[in-house]
Amino acid sequence: MVFRFYSNQVQKASNSIAAGIFIVGMLLIGFGVLIYLLPDFFATLAAIVFFMIGLSIIGYAIRLFVATRKMSDLSSNNSDYRENVYIHTPGNHLD
Fold first, then answer.
1. Are 94 and 88 in contact (CB under 8 A)?
2. In angstroms, rounded to a whole number, what is the distance separating the alpha carbons of residues 47 and 37?
3. How many domains does the chain have?
4. What pTM was estimated for this model as a whole?
5. Would you place residue 8 in the very low, low, confident or very high pLDDT band (cuts 50, 70, 90)?
6. Is there a domain that residue 15 lies in?
């Protein structure tokens, strides 16, 4: 007599997760072998990726500098005093 405390769906899900993990492991082993056999190619590829990421980060930094400069120019042109603006507080009624 066999008692199953889990359904067939749990077994299918476990098998699919195990298959996914197995495929990822095989891909990592293959990638490791490729890096071992072709180190110059992957070093060049990594250098290109880092260079492109660096250029992207510099571009974002320049955009931030420009945006903060524009915000600073906008805030310096405006004075602290605004016409037709009244601050209402309790007990202070303007008639």
1. yes
2. 18
3. 1
4. 0.51
5. confident
6. yes
